[in-house]
User: What shape does this take?
Amino acid sequence: MKTELAPRTKVLVYGLMCVLLIPFVFPTWWMVTSSVKPISQIFAFPPDIIPRSFDFTTYGRVFELQPFAQQYWNSAYIAALVTIGTMLFSSMAGYAFARIRFPGANLLFMVVLLGLLIPSEVTIVPLFQMFLSWGMINTHWPLVLVPIFGAPSVFATFVMRQFFIALPVELEEAARVDGLGRFKIFWTIALPLARPALAAVAIFTFLHSWNLYLEPIVFLSSPDRFTLPQALTQFTDAYGGALWNVQLAAASMTALPVLIVFIIAQKQFVEGLAHTGLKG
Amino acid sequence: MASVTLTDVRKSYGATAVIHGVDVDIADGEFVVLVGPSGCGKSTLLRMVAGLETITDGEIAIGDRVVNDLEPKDRDIAMVFQNYALYPHMTVATNMGFSLEHRGTSKAQIAERVKWAADILGLEALLDRYPRQLSGGQRQRVAMGRAIVRNPQVFLFDEPLSNLDAKLRVVMRGEIKGLHQRLRTTTIYVTHDQVEAMTMADKIVVLNAGRVEQVGAPLDLYDRPANQFVAGFIGSPAMNFIGGRITPGGFVAAGVTLPLPAGLPAGERSAVYGARPEAFALAPDGLPATVTLVEPMGPETQVTLMLGEHQIIAVFRERVKARPGDTLHIRPDLEAIHLFDAETGARLN
Ligand SMILES: Nc1ncnc2c1ncn2[C@@H]1O[C@H](COP(=O)(O)OP(=O)(O)OP(=O)(O)O)[C@@H](O)[C@H]1O
Ligand SMILES: [Mg+2]
Assistant: This one.
């Protein structure tokens, strides 16, 4: 794909892309700008694209109203654990399904995939009872364990399996001749080459965990254990009315790591793709 | 270094048998080429020697060790794959030293071995590059470097040159042969290209549909093929085959009677008359044949002729000025005539 576009087409294409960008960028822009507006101005119509006054005290109030730093940390370490755990398990499981022939492998894979079809709302009550009997209610354990062994991990396993199937098997045979055992082949050959797939898995697992809402509100009850999506619902005045600007300030801070993860993972993704240029 | 012995080796995938009992003895230091048409089981056989494929039945020994149940890493072999299988995420030097690294060789020793191999193969300047930054021929060399650093007992090559263009193939052919002459490591080399087989091998094993058709030195196979399959497979352009009957008066075929060599079993029978393109000479008292195509090659001239109702190809050392439609008189060299059984294809003379 190295076709040079004529200048006029180029202008047209870029113009069109700018227009298409608006619905994607506007909500974020609105969120960030509204977080520094007085509440009365947030719902003004037509909306002010550029706020008339900047009031950054909303960012301070986020931390007064909630143990927000603690909640931030909760979300961060849970998402990190879930991401690392999922990458580890899904790559190993995906590799096994792709490369190891064992009786019932296909059937087992189908059973695993079926897990994707069950909505989390269906399993949340039995899960609650299970974790209750394990004494894990109002701890972070369910939020770590459920995604690592649940639907997001199943999807990740599927992605990894497809990637490993496509990897030339000669590379691993060469490694076998070079003297490596199964696990070392996985660890030093297959896994490093799976960077693009791992990056994709990392992005969606992190996002899934970071945005998890149903599970925290079911499993957690004390504010200092809350995760961010749950905390965002707590910014109200004494009468239960929403403090929109404070809430949006919290939301802006919540969105920041997502942006960072995207940028890092995307770079990995592209570099990884370049790496797999096996043959020319 | 070691000998390799295959004894009645068989392979089946489920119910389909693909190797039907192969016996081959490879002497220490020998360069053996497995050659045969696509799908005949060359790669399968090589991979069984490597340990990448299980052995359904029979025995493979390297040196005096039966290796049937040994992992590839314990067989002390090195393999060069058709697509090279260089690790894309490692530099040339790491690729070459990788196997030593996993055998607990010291860093200094690895560096020394890699340098030694790079010296031999002219890779010194490329050691820090990644495989994607190399040309096809350079990748090929790195793959060979990876094989030789370890100084294994046996080298296995699976069609290593088939991804290269024709010119480079000739160059690399020479390099592999040179490498073997220098290191004298027992080598098994798989190809479907009979020119590669002829030029490189000490000994050729011709395979067809999972069976050995003939084993022998290149020129022995060329001069005395054991059957019609080997006769047709070895040599380019291929041997001419003419079907007909052996009679006391000569070989009777459609529209022509050919002279027969002496020493044939008595009695009339149907057979196939085989003559290589260079087995024909121009002779005023020879058989008349009609020219259909003349292809001057420079040192020789390739002429397509109708001999009776049979189309044959002849190659003459001299320049032939004939044109399509002309008649040439040709005489087969009786020393170089092969006769095969019409049914079994087995050699008769
Ligand atoms: N995993 C497999 N399952 C079933 N049949 C197989 C398998 N691998 C190879 N075969 C069959 O075994 C036969 C030999 O295959 P092999 O790859 O050894 O051929 P080859 O001589 O190397 O051919 P080529 O020159 O095309 O590489 C073929 O008929 C092939 O279809
Ligand atoms: Mg093959």
Notes: DSSP finds 14 helices and no strands in chain A. Residues 276-280 of chain A have pLDDT under 50 and may be disordered.
